[in-house]
Amino acid sequence: MDTTMIIGIVLLVALVIAAVVAAVLVDRSHKRRTTGERNDSSSRIGPAKPAGQQPEAAATAAPGASSAAIGQSQSDEARPSQADRSDLASAASGPAAMSAPAERVMETPESAGSRITRLKAKLSKSSNPFGRVLFNILAKDHLSETDWEDVEDTLLLADVGADASAKLVDELRNDARVTGTSDPVQVRDALRAKLLDLVGVDTDRRLNADKPGAAESASLQPSVIIMVGVNGTGKTTTAGKLARLFVAEGKKVVMGAADTFRAAAADQLETWGAKVGVNVVRSDKDGADPASVAFDAAQQAKDANADVLIIDTAGRLQNKANLMNELGKIRRVAEKVLPVDEVLLVLDATTGQNGMAQAKVFAEAIGITGVVLSKLDGSAKGGIVIAVQKELGVPVKLVGLGEGPDDLAPFDAPAFVDGILA
Ligand SMILES: Nc1nc2c(ncn2[C@@H]2O[C@H](COP(=O)(O)OP(=O)(O)OP(=O)(O)O)[C@@H](O)[C@H]2O)c(=O)[nH]1
Ligand SMILES: [Mg+2]
What are phi and psi of 341, to 5 degrees? Predict the structure, then answer.
């Protein structure tokens, strides 16, 4: 064999090896590309998939899965029914889609009875400057002219309102004159009775969704609640706490994130929902029309046979006419699908009489069926309860007593008055 032949054979072998290596490399890169495409497409299933969520979890996160999730085992939850799957398809294609609870370990919200006992104790313990001043005045042996004025000033400072404070003290003084006594203990008892009267002991404070017969007819299901109020009063927090209250009652809840100003607002609502298996209908587009999200939420809550739909809205100042008109539109558009049973105005208890101005404009713009007095655990200027109810004719239905997930309770008039006088 001559040298030329040997070189030829070596070159041939080298060429064959190069061809084999090239073929293997091409095959590997092709495999990588197809796997990547599969992953990409699964990440599009279910909007707002939380970081780190696995594709399987995204499928679990289907709309309608809330019915499976609430009160059921994790394995049930991991197997959405056929209906769940078709819901998922329609939700993903719509402008606002229902996202899923992100966490697998569900919390058990505190029952209504247990939270009332706990929150009553919390209310009576909260530092209440109003109660302390009244206590000091009424601890005297005999009430002088200045003491009466101090009682009135204290009621004013506690946001009871000018008219109500003057009327209350006038009546107390009049009673004292008639009975010929200004015995502080009797005055104190009389004050308690009058405050109770003003706050309203027999007022029906049930949420419309909780009233017997609410949404019994299939066509009226679910009950719809819209949360409104100025910026930062606690709307989203209250929506989340309220969802827990309903879940504790065994109800199926859906929430709608009609605060489309910031994506973070929908994320905040999802975080609340995820803990108790409540799905949130949201738009992934910042600045989407909140009314259209409300419409989609109503449609999807209805399709999912939910008992209650809670729609969160963006905070807005009452003097911004366009934003107030937007609220009216949210209601009208939601009502194309379902009647709105409840509009809850969330008032920050620490804003005092300023809350009145807010309440009036919100009542005109969207209609108010109840007030949530949030942050009553703060400086406890709860007297606004009296003014709001009197001016608007709508009851305070719930009070927020802290940032904890179950720190929301039905308003309890005697506990509230005792809290003031404590
Ligand atoms: N102490 C206390 N804090 C509360 C209560 N309710 C809400 N907060 C706090 O108030 C702050 C604002 O609450 P959000 O629920 O975000 O208020 P929002 O009305 O949705 O705010 P916007 O959507 O920005 O208008 C948060 O830090 C809450 O934790 C309450 O009852 N007590
Ligand atoms: Mg909010």
Answer: -85, -30
Give per-residue pLDDT as tens, 147-174: 888 888 888 887 788 888 898 888 888 8
Q: Mean pLDDT over residues 274-290, rounded? A: 91
pLDDT at 82 over 50: no
The CATH code of the domain that includes 257 is 3.40.50.300
**Residues with a CB atom less than 6 Å from ligand 1:** 229, 231-237, 259, 265, 314-315, 374-375, 377-378, 400-403, 407
Which pair of structure tokens corresponds to residue 282? 């949201």
Q: Kindly identify the ligand whose nearest atom is closest to the C-alpha of 122.
A: 1
Last residue of a domain, one of 157, 172, 199: 199
Is 65:85 a contact under the CB 8 Å cutoff?
no
Domain boundary among 167, 199, 231: 199
Ligand 1 centroid, distance to 184 Cα (angstroms):
39
- Name the average pLDDT for the chain: 75
Q: For the domain that residue 154 is a member of, what is the CATH number?
A: 1.20.120.140
Domain that holds residue 224: 213-413
Ligand nearest to the CA of 375: 1
Contact partners, residue 152, CB within 8 Å, separation at least 6? 165, 166, 168, 169
Cα distance between residue 212 and residue 207, in whole Å: 10
352 is in an annotated binding site: no
Task: Specify the ligand 1 atom closest to the Cα of 374.
Answer: 31
- C-alpha 166 – ligand 2 centre gap (Å): 37
Q: Is the pTM of this model over 0.90?
A: no
Q: Which amino acid is at 36?
A: G
Check whether 136 has a pLDDT greater than 70: yes
> Is 236 annotated as contributing to ligand binding?
yes
